[in-house]
Amino acid sequence: MGSQSPRRRELMAGLDIPFTCVTIDADESYPAYLQAGDIPLYISRAKAHAYTSNLHENDLLITSDTIVWLNGKMLGKPNTKEEAKQMLNLLSGHTHQVYTAVCFTWLNSSSSIENNELTDINYQTKQPNYLYESFVDCTDVTFRTLTTKEIEYYVEKYMPLDKAGAYGVQEWIGYIGVQKMHGSYFNVMGFPIGRVYEWLNAFYKA
Amino acid sequence: MGSQSPRRRELMAGLDIPFTCVTIDADESYPAYLQAGDIPLYISRAKAHAYTSNLHENDLLITSDTIVWLNGKMLGKPNTKEEAKQMLNLLSGHTHQVYTAVCFTWLNSSSSIENNELTDINYQTKQPNYLYESFVDCTDVTFRTLTTKEIEYYVEKYMPLDKAGAYGVQEWIGYIGVQKMHGSYFNVMGFPIGRVYEWLNAFYKA
Question: Which of B84, B101, B99, B67 is nearest to B173 (CA)?
Fold first, then answer.
């Protein structure tokens, strides 16, 4: 698993399937024309691409990326506490989308063209040595109106600079501020674990 | 807080408000005519009632109860592993409701009749020495079809005999089996922490 996120690791560990974690240094920039779920799809693919040369036979690499999408704009990780507070002010009283993409990468042992078929729900590259499949999951999250005091308290105490949209749903702000949610909670935590399980099940059965 | 549930304690701790836990031995039976959310409302009230004689001035007691409601029937805590498996078989492939009721109890220092007004969203008893307020929260949870192997694995490994409906949403079965959810995830964990926070906020401001 190519992730340093403790939330992703915890969720993955909950599947009771052995796995190891690797560190990937990937360029997380993306083309400006990409929108919504296509952004984490692109970035999770870029993370995988940065690691493919280290893959061994029978390895399956899982990479992932999460963004917060509010009224047609992306909120990434805040650089400063000030930016974190601004983001939470934007999210306060509104509904946003959380998109998490998951990318699975493995060596193409046959390297035949048949394995590179494109399906309508999955994406695969034309790279002959590796195979990729990705999906993206979306959850609607509604914050009630947060007070300045609540935003200050959360940012100062929890320092959410490593989190897309400046919040962790499994932290204080998620407890007190999330009014409703439609879709997977785990997706908002950063890893749609149910769909990962289903994908792995289908992959290892095949 | 009158609860032995580690999930409830963890969620309550996340509010960053000091609290202590007490053990309450209450009769959890209820009248047969009660339906759905009225069942945990009744039981959370019974838990509170079993403790009122121990309350001191300025204490605020929080009690809570959670049930799983499937097609007009309640699923409580399973007594045996066999019963747990049967419950999960019933839940598999269907949508059910999780109801959690929270009851707040405190000494009525004034004992005047004004404090006993009934509001349309809250319930208060006519008991002159104590005041109660309760609410109930509901979440729709949809399980995908679970295999016998998945149900066996979960029950044998996780022993969900202390859990209403024989599952913990924050455990393996929640990761792999929950297809969608509408409402609060924390409510399904057994404690609608956002509404608890709002209630406490309003109570201590008043």
Answer: B84
**What was the ipTM of the complex prediction?**
0.79
User: What is the tens place of the pLDDT at every residue in B153-199?
Assistant: 999 999 999 999 999 999 999 999 999 888 899 999 999 999 999 99
Using an 8 Å CB-CB cutoff, list chain B residues near A192.
Answer: none
The C-alpha atoms of residue A109 and residue A107 are separated, in whole angstroms, by 6
Q: Distance (Å) from the C-alpha of residue B101 to the closest C-alpha of chain A?
A: 17
Search chain A and give the residue with CA nearest B182. A182
Q: A136 has which bridge partners?
A: A101
Residues of B with catalytic function = 65
Query: Is the pLDDT at A31 greater than 50, yes or no?
Result: yes
Residues forming beta bridges with residue B63, ordered by sequence position: B103
What global pTM score does this model have?
0.84
Do A186 and A192 meet the contact criterion of CB atoms below 8 Å apart?
A: yes
Q: What percent of chain B has pLDDT over 70?
A: 91
Interchain pair B184, A183: CB under 8 A: no
